[in-house]
Amino acid sequence: MTVDGADIRTDLPAWQRRLGVVSQSCFLLDASLARNIAFGLPDDRVDRARLTDAVRRARLEELVDALPEGLDTVVGERGVRISGGQRQRVAIARALYRRPRVLIFDEATSWLDTVTERELLDTLLAELGDCTIVMTAHRLQTLRRCDHVVVVDGGRITDRGTFAGLAERGVGVFAAGPDGSDGWAIQDSNLGPLPYQRSALTD
Description:
- By secondary structure, the chain is of the alpha/beta class.
- It has helices at residues 12-17, 33-37, 48-57, 61-66, 84-97, 114-127, 163-169, and strands at residues 2-3, 6-7, 19-22, 102-106, 132-137, 149-153, 156-161, 183-187, 201-202.
- The relative contact order is 0.14.
């Protein structure tokens, strides 16, 4: 696999440092919200300004304001003291804290209501202009703002195009409407000629 013409295997750790990955289920420590966002960093190396920015972008400000100790509130083992949607947004804030060049969402908004999901994606798309976003989602409407969609059936690419174009044709998963099945999506960025840039995959 090449990025900007360079094989990522020549310096795989450097490529991995450019990634931010958020899965459907996220691991949270029995520690403060701040430690869970700045995951793995000692307290004296946590950038509070960057932490606050990640919280804002992940739509976590209301939660932080409601917690008794704000960012220093302990969320409990596996984040049991907060909701599923809040845990997902903590995981998103964790990825954003790293300021990645490629952000991968693997069902990362599945616990969010549609309004919160839209607001969060609006913020990310408006502010992460130099970041490529790769998304998987059960809700096809999550993919509406993606540049390209690639439809995969049985491990093979069966169709590709814009969301609007595929929805108009009503082929495959799009025949079921916006609540169809799984999907992959990529939001365009200025990262460069990634081999998968400006594409989306739906299974």
